[in-house]
Amino acid sequence: MQHFKTLSAYIDYLNLPGSEHPMLSVFSAIGEGFLPCPKESSPPITNDCYSISLKKIVKGDLNYGRTKYDFANGSLIFIAPRQVLQWDNAVVYKQKGFSINFHEDFIKGTELAQQIKKYSFFSYSANEALHLSPKEEKQIESIVKNIEIEYQNNQDEFSKDIIISQLSTLFKYANRFYERQFLNRKELSNNLLEQFNLQLSEYFESGQLKEKGIPSIEHIANKLSVSQRYLSETLKKETGKTTTEHLQLHLINEAKNILLQPSKSISEVAYELGFEYPPYFSRLFKKREGISPTEYREKYRMN
C-alpha cells in the first residue's frame, strides 16, 4: 500500500494544483468557479494528513476504511492521518464545496493538536459523515472563506495562528452539528440498536460464545458497517448506555438462564459465556445485579 509522508506528495498524486503552503492546502468553490478534479480512481493509499471536505454535485464511491460512501450534497467528511482511502470513478466536472488538507505537523505544538484528538468524528466511517442543514452549511462555508483568504494572502508571522484558530472554530461547530445529528436521527439510532441486539443474539445462539469468547465491540461494529466509536456514541445518545454496557446486559441475561441449570457450576457457566476467568464473571454479575451468581441461584430456588 502506498503511503505519502508529505502533503505535496499526496497533492501531486491526486493530480491537483500545488499548494500555497508546504503543510496546508485549501481548495474552495463556495462562490464562483468549481473545484479542481482529482484523479479518477485510486487503489488503497494512506497519508499523514488531516482532510476536511464538503463536495456537492459529485458522483462515485469513496472507500474509507471498510466502508463505501456515496457522496451526497451537503455532507461534511473528516479524515484522519493514516486512514485507508480508495475511490473509483469519483470525478465529475463542476464540483462545488471545499477541501482542506493539512499535515499533522502543521498543528504540532499548538492547543489544536490536543483538541483534535477529542473530536471523535475523525474516527467515524465515511457513511457517518455530517449531513449539514442549509443554515449549517452557510456557517461552515463562512469559516472556510476566512481560512481561504488568509491562505491566499502573503504569509507572515500571524498567518498560521489565524488559520489554526479558524480550523479550531470549524471543528467546534462540527462538533455542535454532530450533536444535533445524533438527536435528530432517532430512527437511525433505533435501527442501529435493533441491529446491534440482533448481532449479539445471533452470536450467542450460534454457540460462538463458548468457542470464540465474548465478541469485541469492534467485531460487532464491523458487522454493522459502522465504526466502533460511532456505534457506542449513537447508542449512548439514544439509550444512555454504551455498547459495552449493552453487551454486558446481554451476558448477564444469558447468565441468568444458564444459572437456572443446577447441574452446572458457576465456573462452567462462566466458561460457557466466554469468560476466560470465572472470578471476573462473578464480579461483573454482582456489579450489575447486586448479588453474586451463587446468591442469585439460591434466591431463585427460594422463589
Automatic annotation (TrEMBL):
UniProt key word Hydrolase: no
Annotated keywords: DNA-binding, Transcription, Transcription regulation
Listed Pfam families: HTH_18
Entries under InterPro entries matching the protein: Homeodomain-like_sf (IPR009057), HTH_AraC (IPR018060), Tscrpt_reg_AraC-type_HTH (IPR020449)
Gene3D superfamilies with a match to the protein in the record: Homeodomain-like (1.10.10.60)
Keyword flag DNA-binding: yes
Domain of life: Bacteria
Domain HTH araC/xylS-type, first and last residues per copy: 198-299
Identification of the protein by name: AraC family transcriptional regulator
